[in-house]
Write the structure tokens for this entry.
Amino acid sequence: MEIWEQLKGFFQHQTLNVELWRIALALAIILFSFAAKKLLINAMAKSLLHLAKKTKTELDEMLVEAIRPPLGGLTVLAGFFFASVIIRFPTEPVNVYKLVNGLLRTFAIVIVSWALYRSIQVAVHMLENITSKTESELDDQLVPFVEKFLKVVVIVLGFVLVVREWGYDINGLLAGLGLGGLAFALAAKDTLANLFGSIMIITDRPFVLGDWIKTPNTEGTVEEIGFRSTKVRTFANSLVSVPNSIIANSTIENWSRMFKRRIYFKLGVTYSSSVAQVQETVERIKDILRKHDGIRQDFWLVNFSDFNDSSLDIMVYCFTKTTAWAEFLEVQEDVKLKIMAKIKEIGVGVAFPTRSVYMENNEPEELKRLDEKALSLLRARQNQEPPPETTSTLGSGAGV
């Protein structure tokens, strides 16, 4: 009895105007909440998952997994709440009760916002299931924007609730932000331009995810369309991020939108080819295109087109059925090799650049005679013969 009386007397002592037994009980509740968090959450999640598995959709199972960590935080927060009730914090000289209550309510807002933030992924998964069943690709591109927008809304809403919880006037805060809005807009003009560029890309749809595009800045496959930039995987396997404001105002060549691919070249044959040979060459090329399985038959042209500097040009214009680059190259190679074989059979040669030079001799007669005399002197020197006699213009002396 004496020990009990001593313990009772000890716990009835006060610290900061709070009995020790209240502090001890509050600590016990907090420790219990930490210890019970994992057991309670696992039991609760197991029960919810058991119920969720009975449904046909997997969204409820994803929702349970999403809110499991926030539920653990709420369990601990509940322990702190009951501990604060037992302690009965004093209000004087400092209002400790108001401070602790504000902290608990703030953590409650943060945990609920955390749960909503994690639950957004479930909503996004549901939207992806819906958009995958539609033929339009626009809704598929909108899903990432909806996800980012919802996350921003949850974060902003949580921040506003926390600010209001601590007694700040949210209207005054918004007014202050309005005063700095102009400076912010000027500083963020590039960001806003990129945002509007992304909206233009989504609404105008010059390309979608997976398209092969070419712009003045880059060429490759579109991997992601974000708020600020579009990510393009180049053929060198590097990842290029192009600001949406730039790509929205650029000329975009979308190779993935082709339904056929063009073959165009000019075959130059030699000027020694006769008219009949040129006509036969044209007819043989037409026959090759007409019978080729890889060439579209709705439109093609083969005609003698130009008298070039060193060749007679035959234009070949057609389209392949495939748009794949590798397959297109194979079809083009096969057509050209067959043309080479056919024109060789009729003796037509492929021309190459040549030039003939004609020199005209317009030298005067006196220069010609001087050239002939110089040539005879050179030949005499080479043959060691005496040079031909020449008449001196200075005269001769008297004979002896």
